[in-house]
Design brief:
With about 300 residues, the protein is mainly α. It is built from 14 helices and no strands.
Length: about 300
């Protein structure tokens, strides 16, 4: 199969797998989506059914109106941001995380406790997932280096948030989106990703996450994706991962339009990443492979 196949969904799976998240999770998702039946865990309340029926219920939260009170969740988010910004000692950060996790486990129906656990996991895993689970530091496969460690770190809280009643708030939906894009970046998340981006076009965490699942088949979608990457780079021109996001968008647009201008822009974006990224950045080898693949496409 060619990397830049014109079929949008196939192309998107391959490019994201190679460009943003690592191959394993998305290739598994693609295989599941092609099956008429899915075997869900025995304790799943929906049992065995079609993927479409399962997805309709599993992602029903993405269609909810945000009518709840966001203030408590904003305060939790602000407190965690402040604590993490003031403390750079790994042992103390890991200890703080365990406190959030323990409080959530003791109060499984307390959505605020679950939110605090989830947000702490998201922020800490993005920087050092081994602080959440020390075993992650011992894993060295390519897929783990390219995002798998973060997926493993946030998977438990992501599953937990899916089992409690959603409080119909923007903040809670935002957190679930950020976590689920990491654990299983399904196309089912695209619509709520757009809602979140348009709700706050200065939320760079949401914007970066949206690019990982964005489609660019229509002119409107392409304009949105391009405007997001421009905004990210205006805010952080020296942030290496923003250049990979831009490269992914340019590569996607080239695969749809076959406009060689976007091919060259994609290559330039990945080269800029290599220029800015530290020598030990785990994505460096992947960026080099992507450049070679795009050059041949």
């Amino acid at each position: 199969m060619k990397l830049f196949k014109k079929n949008g969904k196939t192309r998107r799976y391959w490019l994201l797998a190679l460009g943003c998240l690592g191959l394993t999770a998305l290739s598994s998702l693609a295989q599941v989506a092609q099956q008429p039946k899915v075997n869900l865990p025995e304790d799943d309340i929906w049992g065995q059914q079609t993927y479409e029926d399962w997805a309709k219920q599993a992602y029903s939260w993405t269609h909810q109106k945000w009518v709840g009170n966001d203030q408590p969740y904003r305060e939790i988010r602000s407190n965690i941001d402040t604590l993490l910004s003031q403390n750079n000692k790994p042992s103390e950060i890991a200890e703080r995380y365990e406190l959030y996790k323990t409080a959530a486990i003791k109060a499984p129906t307390d959505d605020r406790a679950q939110f605090a656990w989830g947000y702490a996991a998201f922020k800490i895993a993005g920087k050092n997932p081994s602080l959440i689970d020390p075993k992650i530091a011992k894993l060295s496969t390519r897929s783990l280096k390219e995002g798998g460690g973060t997926r493993l770190a946030v998977a438990p809280v992501t599953r937990t948030l899916a089992t409690i009643p959603t409080p119909y708030t923007y903040e809670f939906a935002r957190l679930r989106f950020l976590l689920e894009v990491i654990t299983l970046p399904s196309p089912e998340l695209t619509a709520i990703g757009k809602r979140l981006v348009r709700h706050n076009f200065k939320d760079h965490e949401v914007m970066y996450s949206y690019i990982k699942i964005a489609e660019v088949k229509t002119k409107e979608d392409r304009e949105l994706a391009l405007s997001i990457t421009r905004s990210l780079l205006e805010a952080g021109p020296g942030v290496p991962k923003y250049h990979t996001a831009q490269g992914a968008v340019y590569g996607d647009i080239y695969s749809i339009t076959r406009d060689r201008l976007y091919k060259e822009k994609a290559i330039a974006s990945y080269r800029k990443f290599l220029e800015l990224a530290p020598a030990d950045d785990p994505f460096r080898e992947q960026a080099k492979r992507l450049i070679r693949m795009i050059q041949k496409a």
